[in-house]
Amino acid sequence: MTTNPNPPFSFEVIAADPKTGARAGIFHTPHGDIETPVYMPVGTQATVKGLLPRDLKEAGAQIILSNTYHLYMRPGHEIVQKAGGLHKFMHWDRPILTDSGGFQVFSLAQLNKITDEGVWFHSHIDGSKHFFTPEKVMEIENALGADIIMQFDECSEYGADRDYARRALDRTVRWLERCAAAHGRPDQALFPIVQGNLYEDLRLESVAAARPFARYGIGIGGLSVGEPKPRMYEILDAMRPALPEDVPRYLMGVGSPDCLVEGVMRGIDMFDCVLATRIARNGTALTSKGKIVVRNAEYKEDFSPLDEECGCYCCRHYTKAYLRHLVNAGEILAATLLSLHNVTFLTGLMRGMREAILRGTLGEFREEFYARYAGAAEGKM
Amino acid sequence: MTTNPNPPFSFEVIAADPKTGARAGIFHTPHGDIETPVYMPVGTQATVKGLLPRDLKEAGAQIILSNTYHLYMRPGHEIVQKAGGLHKFMHWDRPILTDSGGFQVFSLAQLNKITDEGVWFHSHIDGSKHFFTPEKVMEIENALGADIIMQFDECSEYGADRDYARRALDRTVRWLERCAAAHGRPDQALFPIVQGNLYEDLRLESVAAARPFARYGIGIGGLSVGEPKPRMYEILDAMRPALPEDVPRYLMGVGSPDCLVEGVMRGIDMFDCVLATRIARNGTALTSKGKIVVRNAEYKEDFSPLDEECGCYCCRHYTKAYLRHLVNAGEILAATLLSLHNVTFLTGLMRGMREAILRGTLGEFREEFYARYAGAAEGKM
Fold first, then answer.
1. Distance of alpha carbon A237 from alpha carbon B322, whole angstroms
2. What domains sit in chain A, N to C, each tagged with a CATH number?
3. Which of A114, B132, B200, B378 has its CA 20 to 30 A from that of B319?
4. Rounded Cα distance, A347 and A277, in Å
5. CB < 8 Å to B294, chain A
């Protein structure tokens, strides 16, 4: 099948579903191989909240995402660099992807001024003023040392009019060129990002502009930012024929179970999302039969595991009654155990899809997923 | 040496320091052997905060303590019993000790009324009114199913006058008789508790009253509640000749490194304290050279481990700079890693003392401890 050898990176598509375009592949990186499609847990501040790296590996994580904006703010990229890079700093020896901070400066920080040169913004921590340019972001990402780094982009918000979506897209393309010129480490793969909001023609234009820079992979940004899921799927359908075949396609910030299934069906290879660990900290579990809000009184004397089909440490050793107690008592072990379980659930879902692609049974997999997961949860997705 | 066979419990003193009375022993329990002297991490709400049981074992924990008052309040002892007991509920297959709630109802809850019959108090969680009697506490501790259970006692506060200390002691003795009569599980060892505040004659009287009930072990309560450490040591010195030789002696709620050393020197075999895990959550580490406040700016670019001599997961894989980042960023992994380290430090300290007792070098051990630990920390104990 398709192979794209660009040492130290290369991507092999080892099977593809002829009906849907879903692919099973292997992405070779300096820190090891990633079997795709893959879900990446999010380690915003150089830690996937509440999980030791060994727990994360046990949960099936092949690669994690960390946030450039947050690490620049705290502890500072120079400190991570002096520590020997992000892998060593956080003791994670598998691949890492860093985003570019683009999404954060446009959503989390207090925006001050956007120009072609870059973005002035105020820190969400202490209000201090900072300036991100494509060159600055490459300097930060190079210092952090992830295997995969994302370009600095401008993400227009959900509901943006066509004019702003167009301007943000054009700027993203100009910034891509500057990122590519400034990026200096051959052991890091730079991914361009497709923008264009919900305008199909802009999306296609953005794909075309990104393709020359998609040597190792391509990111799709600006989705799952508030739009109805069917709109996101339409945009993915529209882009699919135009996306490069020989590199991994990464749908940024998407990771609810149904979106993972629908994304894979549309040829997406990589996903990340804070959902699994965030809802874990709120006491919610993802299971093969739908979501479980562990705090609910119905689990007070439920001495069964979260998910009978799950083999994770949490499901092997703990009952819903115990987890409910931990959540109610405000114990941090609740976050650890539920995160461990939720990450295991999503990595298992991806592995299940990968195997279905290899066996040519992805359609059945999807049907069963909806019959059991969505059905049992009565739409609680 | 001394052996006290009371299956399923027995205690062997395998070595004793002739100069100090410090002992090295093995306490056999239904959930395994405990090498003494031993430090017990505290798992108040059926979890040692932030640590998976496997992490706790790796940190050297042989036995943990859990709190009867807290588990009665939440999730309720009946639920723990229905779950198959505390060991199964929290997935801890080594020994557990439960306190009696005495200390908590007199310190944490809002006291309402103390009579010979029992204690009325209000929950610290929701203000609801509850009544603890010796019989009720035995019912709760029997339901929880720990290996070692403590009698219900009245702990007079630091500064209490002789009259109140006397009344609390007398009531503790009467309650002991009722606990012994109500306790119904031969697989649980009931420990009486010595009270008497800082009055040496009352302490000796209390020891004498407790001894007939000290079949498996004896607890010493009401110390480390605010008095200067030398006062505590004087009381321990005064009690030592009167304490039974053939059972473990447990100094309740004591666990700073220096108190552990001084306690062992005075013939104490068991200790528990929240200190190690509580200060971990505040970002403080116990090390062979003294306490480290990880948040301090001096560790910003310190890429060495917390303790060069420690082999725990935290010290093998992480630097002070990383831990400081986690603490500053409010990441719960900071609590996990520092707790793992601090528990490892205290279990290592106890193991070191045990080996010194076996080798007859406890005096040198103590000298070296003070020279390095206290000296390096400039009195920061």
1. 43
2. 3-273 (3.20.20.105), 283-376 (no CATH)
3. B378
4. 13
5. none
Place of tokens 């006062």: B231
Instruction: Give residue-wise pLDDT tens across range A249-260.
Output: 999 999 999 999
Q: Cα–Cα distance between B235 and B150 in angstroms, integer?
A: 21
What's chain B's average pLDDT? 95
pTM of the model: 0.96
Closest partner residue to A50 among B300, B321, B332, by Cβ? B332
Residue B33 appears among annotated catalytic residues: no
A46 contacts B74? CB cut-off 8 A: no
- Secondary structure element (H or E) that encloses residue A36, with its range: strand A32-36
Indicate the residue of A55, A322, A332 with minimum beta-carbon distance to B89.
Answer: A322
A313: chain B residues, CB-CB within 8 Å = 52, 54
Window 324-363 of A, Cβ < 8 Å to B: 324-326, 328-329, 331-333, 335-337
Cβ contact A252:A220 at 8 Å: yes
For residue A126, what are its two tokens?
Answer: 């202490």
**How high is the pLDDT of residue A375?**
61
- Inform me whether the pLDDT recorded for B1 exceeds 60: no
pLDDT in tens, B204-231: 999 999 999 999 999 999 999 999 999 9
Q: Are A10 and A4 in contact (CB under 8 A)?
A: yes
ipTM value:
0.96
What CA–CA distance (Å, rounded) separates A324 from A334?
8
B46 and A CB contact within 8 Å? yes
